[in-house]
From TrEMBL:
Presence of keyword ATP-binding: no
Alphabetized GO MF terms: calcium ion binding
Segments forming domain EF-hand: 43-73
Protein name: EF-hand domain-containing protein
Leader sequence segment: 1-21
Length: 73
């Protein structure tokens, strides 16, 4: 549980820094660098979170780089 809370805190701080900078790229949202954007990682970005299910074409609960590329289209 401690590790989860630490990870969540890091994601929140990282997200806040990039939102302030006005950048929303796959790399900035993929905080754990696993090659996918989870729902948890998307939570810091309201517009992305709203589109998450529509972007998740294979309905696996995460966005690949290809799925994320359709964000904002």
């Amino acid at each position: 549980m401690k590790n989860f809370l630490k990870t969540l805190s890091i994601v929140a701080l990282t997200t806040a820094a990039f939102v302030q900078a006005g950048e929303l790229t796959f790399e900035t949202v993929d905080a754990d660098k696993d090659g996918f954007i989870s729902m948890t990682e998307a939570e810091g970005h309201a517009a992305l979170l709203e589109q998450f299910k529509a972007l998740d074409a294979d309905a696996d609960g995460q966005l690949s780089k290809e799925e994320f590329a359709k964000y904002g289209e």
